[in-house]
Amino acid sequence: MFDVNKIRQDFWMLQGKTNEGKPLIYLDNGATTLKPNCVIEMINDYYKKFTSNIQRSDYQLAYQVDEAYQKAREVVADFINCQSREVVFTYGATHGLNQVAYGYGLKNLSKNDEILITVAEHASNTLPWYRLAQITGAKVKFIPLDDKGRLTLENVKKMLNEKVKIVSIAHVTNVLGYCSDIKEISKAVHEVGGILVVDGAQSVPHIKTDVKDLDCDFLVFSGHKMCGPTAIGVMYGKYHLLEKMEPLMLGGGMNSRFDASFNVLLKEAPHKFEAGTPNIEAVLGLKAAIQYLQAIGMDNITRYEVQLRKYAISEMKKLDNVIIYNSDADVGIISFNIIDKDKILFGHDVSTYLSKHGLCLRSGNHCAKNLWQHLGTDSTVRCALYFYNTKQEIDKLIEVLKTTTLENCIDAVI
Ligand SMILES: Cc1ncc(COP(=O)(O)O)c(C=O)c1O
């Protein structure tokens, strides 16, 4: 049974107060999430009880860490339904997307090839493709979004042709919270011989993800957006693609042999992508986070968040000073602005005012700087929910939004 009050006991940060002495209302889960105690304890245990490097040493302690590290790969594989050799640990979604762009793109793209993205993509799923296009002469093209900002299968199909080698899109977009039909899009992309890269940074934490069912070629995500530590992420790749891909970084742990005549033999995937000492405690923390989410149940998490979003939207719609940009989002992301005297208030000032009341909401362009023309504003306030948020927290948000005026914002800023 999903019991939010019981779940909240697992989060140390939800027990305390902010510096202003208010209960913390954390609604910035699109940026990063809070960590449950089991994740913090796992990291502590690694440092307190079994610190050692991995895959290098032959003593008992090192074996114990090797085993725990390998187990983490299996836990991730089970979580997204792939083989453990298809799980590459990265420093986050950004690292994963760069790895795909350079490791796959540089080898497989040339002049006149096309890379398709959308204007709703995060910088991490935009800039590596710009760079790849500059180096290879390929072109980056934008799949048009519909009026609301959704990516439709129809529009994807209109852009597909035999020149398209890579389509890279978010499963869930980070400003509007729209979920794309990855399964159908992957079929269409494969029909023209392209590959589909999925940015799962905002979907994997919230929706049960099965890469076999989606049939995407790559999926990347970040641990810190799903109760795990920062600087750990995953790049899933179909094994035959990983085999042919070049690593972004070279160093210890990823090679089998090299000599002074410059002969280098790399290890097989996934190890060839993990150069240097990895972020061991974060890998173990990610394992604890995934096991924690699995114990709650991903379907329960999605259901609860969707209900909470509906409640938040219905309450926000009652306020005349709020413009909502995505009332029909598929997950718990609500992008909005506040109007006072017919003018949109500066989002960062709104966030500062909200913060005086213990509310943490991010404002700005949320790293999706190509989206502003489509939205008609270059900044929104974003309420991003997770499964530990409550209706009472939404009520508090509504109460404070009612008093969000230019005057109050100015007072909060100075
Ligand atoms: C959709 C999306 N993609 C990629 C990223 C980048 O994630 P990270 O900074 O963890 O690498 C983010 C982060 O906000 C995101 O929202």
What labels would you give this structure?
414 residues, alpha/beta, Aspartate Aminotransferase, domain 1, Aspartate Aminotransferase, domain 2, 2 domains, 7-stranded mixed sheet, 5-stranded antiparallel sheet, globular, binds pyridoxal-5'-phosphate
Structural write-up:
This protein is of the alpha/beta class. The chain has two domains: 4-30 and 297-413, Alpha-Beta Complex (Aspartate Aminotransferase, domain 1), CATH 3.90.1150; 40-295, Aspartate Aminotransferase, domain 2. The chain contains 15 helices and 16 strands. A seven-stranded mixed β-sheet has the order 2-8-7-6-5-3-4, with helices on both faces. Strand 3 (114-117), helix 5 (127-136) and strand 4 form a beta-alpha-beta unit. The protein binds pyridoxal-5'-phosphate. The site of pyridoxal-5'-phosphate has 13 residues, from helix 4.
Record the SSE blueprint.
Layout: H1 4-8, E1 25-26, H2 37-49, H3 60-80, E2 87-90, H4 93-108, E3 114-117, H5 127-136, E4 139-142, H6 153-159, E5 164-170, H7 182-191, E6 195-199, H8 211-214, E7 218-222, E8 233-237, H9 239-244, E9 255-258, E10 264-266, H10 280-296, H11 298-317, E11 322-324, E12 333-340, E13 343-344, H12 347-355, E14 359-360, E15 362-364, H13 372-375, E16 380-384, H14 391-402, H15 406-413
Parallel strand pairs: 1-14, 3-4, 3-5, 5-6, 6-7
Antiparallel strand pairs: 2-8, 7-8, 9-10, 11-12, 12-13, 12-16, 15-16
The structure holds pyridoxal-5'-phosphate (PLP).
The site of pyridoxal-5'-phosphate has 13 residues, from α4.
